[in-house]
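Need a sequence for this fold. Nothing fancy.
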């Protein structure tokens, strides 16, 4: 009887381990799905209201504080809007706003004396996704 009970206990332990593994995989998939949904919503929001990028740029520039910013690279579709609202964004006259055809709408890269700050929507969502994935990974481990 003892060998049968031990075999049964081994099966129960294996099933419990698989349950934890499957739950962890499900949580990772949920993080990816949530970020994909957020990305899609934000892209639609930017397409419907291009002025959303103004808030993005203003918040990112505020984080730069005293760092010397030389250039702001944005998508061509965002460049004209940013130039138009330059004063309300408190961008110093020395900051050059550059059209960068390689960037999508909602992208903003600040070039500073100390390096670049990528404040793009996709970059920020990527950081959020990595942070959530780390939390899920630490819970599963």
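Here you go.
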């Amino acid at each position: 009887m003892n060998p049968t009970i031990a075999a049964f206990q081994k099966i129960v332990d294996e099933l419990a381990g698989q349950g934890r593994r499957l739950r962890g995989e499900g949580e990772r998939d949920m993080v990816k799905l949530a970020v994909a949904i957020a990305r899609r919503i934000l892209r639609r929001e930017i397409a419907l209201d291009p002025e959303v990028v103004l808030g993005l740029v203003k918040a990112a520039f505020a984080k730069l504080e005293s760092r010397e910013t030389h250039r702001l690279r944005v998508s061509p579709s965002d460049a004209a809007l940013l130039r138009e609202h330059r004063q309300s964004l408190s961008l110093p006259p020395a900051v050059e706003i550059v059209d960068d055809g390689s960037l999508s709408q909602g992208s903003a890269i600040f070039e500073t004396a100390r390096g670049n700050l990528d404040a793009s929507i996709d970059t920020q969502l990527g950081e959020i996704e990595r942070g959530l994935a780390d939390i899920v990974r630490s819970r599963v481990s």
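For context: The chain has two domains: 2-46+125-140, 50-120.
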